[in-house]
Amino acid sequence: xxxxxxxxxxxxxxxxxxxxxxxxxxxxxxxxxxxxxxxxxxxxxxxxxxxxxxxxxxxxxxxxxxxxxxxxxxxxxxxxxxxxxxxxxxxxxxxxxxxxxxxxxxxxxxxxxxxxxxxxxxxxxxxxxxxxxxxxxxxxxxxxxxxxxxxxxxxxxxxxxxxxxxxxxxxxxxxxxxxxxxxxxxxxxxxxxxxxxxxxxxxxxxxxxxxxxxxxxxxxxxxxxxxxxxxxxxxxxxxxxxxxxxxxxxxxxxxxxxxxxxxxxxxxxxxxxxxxxxxxxxxxxxxxxxxxxxxxxxxxxxxxxxxxxxxxxxxxxxxxxxxxxxxxxxxxxxxxxxxxxxxxxxxxxxxxxxxxxxxxxxxxxxxxxxxxxxxxxxxxxxxxxxxxxxxxxxxxxxxxxxxxxxxxxxxxxxxxxxxxxxxxxxxxxxxxxxxxxxxxxxxxxxxxxxxxxxxxxxxxxxxxxxxxxxxxxxxxxxxxxxxxxxxxxxxxxxxxxxxxxxxxxxxxxxxxxxxxxxxxxxxxxxxxxxxxxxxxxxxxxxxxxxxxxxxxxxxxxxxxxxxxxxxxxxxxxxxxxxxxxxxxxxxxxxxxxxxxxxxxxxxxxxxxxxxxxxxxxxxxxxxxxxxxxxxxxxxxxxxxxxxxxxxxxxxxxxxxxxxxxxxxxxxxxxxxxxxxxxxxxxxxxxx
Length: 687
Description:
The protein folds into 2 domains: 6-173 and 190-216, Glutathione S-transferase Yfyf (Class Pi), Chain A, domain 2, CATH 1.20.1050; 239-424 and 495-682, MFS general substrate transporter like domains (Growth Hormone, Chain: A), CATH 1.20.1250.20. A hairpin with a 2-residue loop joins β1 (391-393) and β2. It has a two-stranded antiparallel sheet. Helix content is 69%, strand content 1%. The protein is mainly α. It starts with 14 loop residues before the first helix and ends in a 6-residue tail after the last helix.
């Protein structure tokens, strides 16, 4: 493997040997030579030996690095007595050499941790039972755990801290002696520190606010050190085209939620029940189920044409939505919403960021995508609250029901003109070089698994597909040669129990959020007699919590807890929020509704980011490429959840508005309990 250090060859996990042993065990169990209990014990012993060799070598190398840093520290101390600029320079070079050796050691740990994860999953696949669960439970939680040395690198991180502190000390030696412990935000200009921090970040899953935001977009963030081919470079990158994709994302989210506060009134004005608002809101999601697939395929050939088509569909859809009032036709209104759903180009937006934005800017672009979505979600209802006016121009009626359609119609017309004049098709399309990209991200649309940005031991792992074919004897780095899934059915066959559990969680959180948002107008009008403006303000406040909550989780919480711990805790809190939302007494209070809604919505947002991060980690790399990628599967799961939720609201409406709240909360309650059970069942596979 290219990343392996030649002189360390004997200390890497012998992945080929382990695969060979697995094949032998399969044959022996099939012919009755050994039972599964024997196989489990023997394979555990072999893997223990492999890990022990890795850990002992790791400790030895850490000791060497520590000794070198200590020697350099003694030389540094002598500089306090007699300052010599030439010695400072030599000392800095010495620390840099330690830094480069430290990077090699961090990559050593990365490769071995990936190999361990892969061989555990391969054992589960071959034998059909949860060896990973058994092995991680017995080894990781043992007081003398060697597995912890590989996955929780306390010693090596201490070496990183010592190196960083000393380099920073030398950097500021000519005057002020600043400590990184007093000023943790100090910027280290030495490039070796950036490289070390990048490697540590990968290993420890250290994250920050921007990274946590990026996890929501599920846009692949490739390893800057990997040397992988990247179509995007500084010369071909076009900032205005990126802005157009982000604006498309923002406008689409505004378009989705601007009708929520008034959809029930619109339905009543056209002679339907107020709860038909569920169908009105959900019809856009129904169409998105299909549009996600063809936009995913279309983005393999062009970005400009899909965006133009999207804008035209949304323009026409909003026009029909606005005209439905004067035509007195619920059918025209629903057709308008369906056309809007057919214009959902979120898959194209994610794919553009993944393929056409340089690696060094992709993190910011991914965070921008999520921020644009969150801002659109908040601005939609807020804008609806300002459209509480009524007038006529000729025979056209402009009121709180139709103005959302007219406003969005104008917005999409302006966007279409802007797009036509300024968008620049990437060079790899204009030159008609059709190279299928290995990244198609989109947890909501498609493209690659946006494995957020700092996947510990994950990008390597995904690049080395765990679910390789049985006859593949290639090493870790070559297992990504398998082609992508060619249909929904073939993609489904690649789903492991862990992936299915994460998709179920994604379905659940989208279901719960859609129920909360879509029925808010009907529920608050029935119980509290809220006006449209009050509903709009309430929904806007919910939307505005997205960024602050992600900031808290991304900056603080993820440094204190593992992703799987945050996942389980968030699921429990969503369950609590759903239970609190039920109407248990004749007097349903505003505080109960608002508090329960905030708990449900906020923790569903937290859950989404962690869920997508874990999903990208456990999913096969074969699902990170092509049309039927992991992003598309998660998008379809979320979109179907919205469709089912909105249909549930309309169906429950026939039982009466007094029963609407409790009836619509029962399905998410059950699904949430099942998702918690699925998380517990697969908990150790998320290690």
